[in-house]
Amino acid sequence: GRDLETGKPIYHKGFEPRPLGPDGPDARARALQLYDGLQKVLRGGMDAPRADRRWPRGSVGAGFEEYRRTEEWPKKARRTREEWDRAWKYIGPVFGDTKPSTVTLYQISELRAAIAKNVSEREAHRTIKVWRALWQVLAALKLCDANQDPSFGVRNSEPEARSERWAAWEIARIAKRAWRGAITASLGSLRPHGTA
Fold it and tell me: Which residues contact 128 (CB under 8 A, 6 or more apart)?
């Protein structure tokens, strides 16, 4: 479509005009793939691809993007897709441009440890959980062997469930203090009800 005020074409994120290389079967296949993807987005069938990154063929990133273009991706629950995208922000920069078969146990272990240290144990657990599901998808796409997932050597125990409970009056007090601008950078004095 076109912008009614400016008359300029409106492009969906990920489908802006771009060079596809010299005319030939590869360029035409890519153009058809983009067209089909745009049609799915316009019908509400999937999320737009990430326009800021093109992954090498056969890489973890290319496999993930290919999976996102299948009919299976929109069938996942919205929260599950959000969880995959959340884990991808850790997986993509590290393994996105590598072939799945070159990823090692040591690298997966380092990734998990870094996330646990710098973010949280829960986020590290979630990322490895998504990696394991992604590996099975990559195997289905014939990019790796399903039984050779290096993360199987990494212990991925689920962290303990959160146990803090806040009383309604405590939440109201905190919200009022924040609203009034009385809250400081240090929230150390605020503790859940019933904890030391």
Answer: 108, 112, 151, 154, 156
**Is residue 2 within 8 Å of residue 10, measured between CB atoms?**
yes
Specify which residues 2 forms β-bridges with.
9
- The tens digit of pLDDT for each residue in 78-134 reads 899 999 999 998 898 888 888 999 999 999 999 888 888 888 888 999 999 999 999
Gyration radius (Cα) of the chain, Å: 22
* Tokens representing residue 29 in the block: 């296949």
136 within 8 A of 148, measured Cβ to Cβ:
no
Q: Is the pTM of this model over 0.70?
A: no
From 9, 28, 6, 26, select the one nearest 17 (Cα to Cα): 9
Q: If we measure between CA atoms, which residue out of 173, 121, 159 comes closest to residue 191?
A: 173
